[in-house]
Predict the structure of Glycosyltransferase family 2 protein.
Amino acid sequence: MGRARGGARIARGGMRIMTAHPTWAVVLAMNQVRMTRECLTSVSALDPGAERIVLVDNGSTDGTAGAVRAEFPNVEVLRLEKNLYFAGGVNEGIRSALSRGAGSILLLNNDVVLERPALGKLRAALEADPARAAVSPKIYYYDPPDMIWFAGGVVGRGLGLIRHRGANMKDEKLRDGPRAVDYVSGAAALLSRDALEKVGLLDPSYVMYVEDVDWCARAREQGRVLWYEASAKVWHHVSATSGGGLTPLKAYYRLRSGALFLVRHATPWQRALSWGSYLAWSGWLLLLSITRRDFRSAGALALGFADFTRILFGAPPPLRTPESFAPPAGRR
């Protein structure tokens, strides 16, 4: 049995067998020391474990990098001087891991907690078929811990809506099992080295949201498979960085990123249908925001849908930043 580059073994007879070893866990953090500590504790306790753990500190201002260096000597800290947002931050960690021989990347948000055997189950699923680009676990809400947040990603073929399978359901209500899916969640997924080298890294032009869906669409365009492994379990503090519930930031960037995805991966007739479905979705959220007197989110939804329409019909994305949707200083 010999070795080949790119997470593969060469068996007798020259057959190429994919292997996920060694696995590097790449954890992205921006502030949130407490959650980061809880996440890294669970990653360090994985059995079997990751061969290396890297924390990408995405411009934290609360001392996250120093706390991790002091408390987790087994964790390498890659400190970024400014927030590169999700794709930019994880790409730095992925590049570092691949350059030093990683066979697979366990990509994690710092607000997740993994059950102890999760990595072994994900690795077995990834290695079972060389066509698999990535495997995602079942992800529950951290609270309540028996409520599903993600059981595989679905992209509607007609309307173009992106949704989580099984969201807000309990296990007994979902007919579940391992299966091919349209996308895995960037909150927790095991990515193969071969796929990362052939598909490329995540696209930072999305800024926030849908980067994982885009990467998976590019993988599927190459004939690769995205897999969901129901037996591997993770718990997620949902939207810990961007804020829980609907916020102006999420309202705007879900629409902006949705438009970019449709322009790049949908047919003209699918884009036309999706405009109507996104109009209905945005209108419902707008009405809900006004009813709750959340006028900042309502304004962001209106702006987001206007930009969604422009992008969908050929205009470049307007130059806006996540910081422009932050709450006023007195309300933070």
